[in-house]
Amino acid sequence: MKFLSLLFFLIALPASAQLWPEPFAIAPYSREVRAVWYCTLGGIDWPGRQYAQTAAKAERQKQMLCEDFDRLQQAGINVILFQARVRGTVTYASDYEPWDGAISGTPGMAPPYDPLEFAVSEAHRRGMELHAYVVTFPICSTAQAKALGRQAVSARYPGLVQRCGDRWFMDPGMPGTAPYLAAICKEIVERYDVDGIHLDYIRYPEREMAFNDNIAYKKWGNGAPKEQWKREQVTRTVRAIHDAVRSVRPWVKLSCSPVGKYADLPRAWSRGWNARDAVAQEAQEWLREGIMDWLFPMMYFDGDNFYPFAANWQQECHGHPVVPGLGIYLLAPDQKDWTLESIMRQMNFLRQIGIGGQAFFRTKFLLDNHKGILDFCHEFYAQPALTPPMTWLDNTPPESPRVRLERRDGYRLLISWDEVKDDTPILYNVYREDPSGYVEMLAHHLSQPYFLYIPALPSRLHDKIVVRAMDAYGNESE
Hints:
By secondary structure, the chain is of the alpha/beta class. It contains 15 helices and 18 strands.
């Protein structure tokens, strides 16, 4: 009854109400995903029009990324979804596809450095995860394909694509599409220390697109109901990518961004736009089967289009984190001019029902602090948080480190420990606990076996210090 009353209140509250809800608090030791989509398509989040055509310009591009990552870290963000495959073009050195023009300014031309490698390193240096964000089935416009010439996916693999007006799409129903996309994701995991692979547009085009799904269906449908067959083709692609990623590093998280409503609910209509029935995404089944680790449903709506469906994602999470994507771009006056309170209520609601966290579409709108959203994140994420452990794959914690404490100069404490051996890479988290039992995370995702603690108050030198080893699945030692 309490949940239903809260849900009614959140839906019924008028948008004009001057409500500034206090952040629903979490314990300092809670796990929560706090993510942003960092889009390179057209340079919209990064790097804008600062093209890396020379070494000096590449340094400026790197500096811009570091400044963004600093501000995201300060705001409490712990996961960056960095766009690595754009539209059949990439922002890393690939054997399969050409460079996207957003980095060098010229499609097909390599910049003087590897942006994905640099982004991974800078995210890890700040204790943040970086997931390679891969746009799957859409590739490019016909104009872009013409500019790329023989490098274009449509020219290299004509049997896997079809033209839809002025755009090219990979066809999920073609047998070669799934292994091709799996090879791209495997290439990323083999070459880069990414924490995850994030799939975008892993679905059929919406009905308004001139996409002919009859070609592949007539050849390979084998009499199955067409809508069921389409869902099987998308799932086949997800499964192929899952198997490819797991074969390299089993702890790399696989996620995707399904349409924000899974299906019609008994008391909530999706208005004809949902993941399962409109675009053949059986995302909740992917969690149940274990071929997807996290979901980032694109919940860019409010009221009864948001709250019942958010609750449904949580109820059908099958023990996995579901992290609703919030449309903070809708705060902009040239979009829907939402009030900040709309997003604040959503964030509080998601935290209160215990869902996996929140994600923001997209980074520029957060860092531009539209209507104070960045300021609110500083408050909402006042306590740092680790991401949830992958207990569905492994729930065995690593060994506990042996810790040594050494006072230096009277007011500093050198905390060091013996490195822990494990089957996966190990990182370390350092905490302090005061006499009242309050726990503060002092440092996290440390790769080196030491940390110099300089407390704000001398009395904190006498608090309990705890070091925990953390394996690549997110399990912490005692």
